[in-house]
Request: fold
Amino acid sequence: MKYSDLVEVYEKIESTSKRLEKTFYISELLKKTNEEDISTIILLLRGQLYPDWDKRKIGVASKLVLKAINTASGAGISRIEQLWKEIGDLGLVSEEVIGTKSQATLFSTSLSVAKVFSNLRKLNDMEGMGSVDRKTQLIAELLSSAKPKEAKYIIRTVLEDLRVGIGDGALRDSIVWAYLPIEVNYDPEKISIDVDREEFNKVVGLVQSAYDKSNDFATVALAAIKGEKELGNINLVPGNPIKVMLAQKVATMDEGFEKVGVPAVLEYKYDGFRVQIHKFNNQIKILTRRLEDVTGQFPEVAKYVLKNVEGKNFIIDCEAVGYDPKTKKYMVFQHISQRIRRKYNIEELAKKLPVELNVFDVLYYDGETMLNKTLEERRILLEKIIKEDEFKIILSKKIVTSDKAEATAFYNESVKKGNEGVMLKNLKAPYKPGSRAGSWIKLKSYMDTLDLVVVGAEWGEGKRSGWLTSFTLACVNENGEFLEIGKVGTGVKEKPEEGLSFGELTELLKPHFKQEKGREVTIKPEIVLEIQFEEIQASPTYSSGYALRFPRVKTLRDDRSPDDACTLERIQEEFYKQKKS
Ligand code: AMP
Reply:
């Protein structure tokens, strides 16, 4: 397929915020894509080079891209820099300078999707001496045969900032429209569809379930072409990360019971961090909630799992909780978060900040997917395969009850032990990867926080110069776009020994800078902060339409990814809840 066909679709999708319209454009593109290009198209549509479960990044700096644009266009570095300052998007800059050049030259070859993909993938594989020059060449080669609009998207893909906005829902539905035997009549005037709803929901469910297991829309699309049976054959693969199930929030025990039904499972809600642990080929892999591989950082956890969990291959879902090795008291997440990032003196840190693994679910066991089993059945299996050893590996503490008084006593006991509250779970519910389905509910003991993404910052002045000091926060909408919701500086410390410091946060954000203008920096959405606040207010100042009153940084959530951030929908819900109360 020609790259220009894809670019045409990018342009159309970028120009609308309506999910159905996006779905229509994508499905039309998929229909005319050859089988050998499908994987590539599915990935490139969202600016990806690897499936969702594969966390490799292109990781090319803006400076290198600038050089490549210059090599291909001959526009001169200073002119390109000037334009970048004015426009703020290197994609648009390259469109402009390649456009100027193209008036003089004729395009000799037309770029194929496969060529673009192949050059971009090579960028990731290159390291060491001379790699900067070779990377510049690979990008420049593409730009030299690109039309201006193509240049725009090549550069945005390289910088991992496509700005097109395709959410999981739109991509999933496009696969349904394009490949499954169901009639979908799309009305472009009304932007609506006419379908047999029941049939439609059934096939959407099939495609979603295939995605839940593979975490890879390309695999799903290729199976969908072959039919429903092939979709049904997709299974979890130990070793390949999958998204974890998430919880909804309630404010009272009554509400919790109402959502999950009775009898309900209640478990301690531990204040640690989520880990998904895979065993395959006698090997252990430990992943955070953002599916980052942290096996190397937690050697003791790998040992516990190998020794205390029976089975050849499995995937279990757990919370790793820090405790004080002397007093054996649980420690809150902030104290142990450094273990996630630490790459040296790991054994020493593990002794100082040990973690206990609290296992609460099993997704796959010895060749069989457990997702569709009930929680009750999954728990029975866990109890069979895990040999508990306190302060190493235990099952999450739980009760099963229909009695509110008993539930409240359990909640009080949990909070007294230093936990965040309780989880209420539907006894009969399946495991739904990546979904905030109502069958898991969290009831917390203190004011709730929001996980928000840093998308901008401001350099400090005076004694704070050299540090970023004010951070622009964003939530995420259903198209995966980041919308601003306010600025925060409070809560970040000047001295590193007091907690997350300006210096540390500045260093973490630096590799993700998009652009600097005076003291203002725009930043790629990568770093997630947990934010406390007093209230959500309606506000025309920020693109989300909301702002936070008295926001304060509680902690860095480096276990969470930007896609995990608080959704606009949730902000809206909170806002209306507040209004009601
Ligand atoms: P929140 O981070 O507030 O959305 O709450 C959900 C998180 O609570 C999960 O992602 C887990 O990391 C954590 N958690 C603690 N205890 C449990 C438990 N027993 N079951 C499920 N999740 C738990």
Notes: Residues 247, 267-270, 274, 289, 319, 360, 396, 423, 442 surround adenosine monophosphate (CB under 6 Å). Residues 197-214 form the longest helix (18 residues). The mean pLDDT is 94. Residues 246-444 form a domain with the D-amino Acid Aminotransferase; Chain A, domain 1 fold (CATH 3.30.470.30).
